[in-house]
UniProtKB/TrEMBL annotation:
Ranges of biased composition (kind: Gly residues): 71-80
Transmembrane region(s): none
Classification lineage: Bacteria, Pseudomonadati, Pseudomonadota, Alphaproteobacteria, Sphingomonadales
Chain positions covered by the region annotation Disordered: 61-91
One Pfam family it belongs to: DUF1622
Protein name: DUF1622 domain-containing protein
Length: 91
């Protein structure tokens, strides 16, 4: 649930940045361009750290799932390393 919310927030930040760029492209002034640069920097930083948190949480979730499967016995929890993190967290 938390990962899904984080992904939606990251998408919303990207859409808002695109909207600001389009608004500035219609009637640009130096003041508007400066504001856009500041907004873009803040939103890009927020999106970067949010994505880092999402990736870390997804990796912890995958590791916990693998630990719980391997503690259950058998080879069900074994991972040959062939899956990428994106493939494992796509569900």
């Amino acid at each position: 649930m938390r990962l899904r919310l984080g992904r939606w927030l990251a998408l919303a930040l990207e859409l808002l940045l695109g909207a600001d760029i389009m608004r500035t492209a219609v009637a640009p002034s130096w003041s508007d361009i400066g504001k856009l640069a500041a907004i873009a920097a803040v939103r890009t930083a927020l999106n970067f750290f949010l994505q880092r948190e999402i990736d870390g949480a997804a990796a912890r979730e995958v590791a916990a799932t693998q630990r719980s499967q391997s503690s259950g016995g058998g080879a069900h929890g074994s991972n040959d390393g062939g899956d990428s993190l994106a493939e494992r967290t796509a569900s």
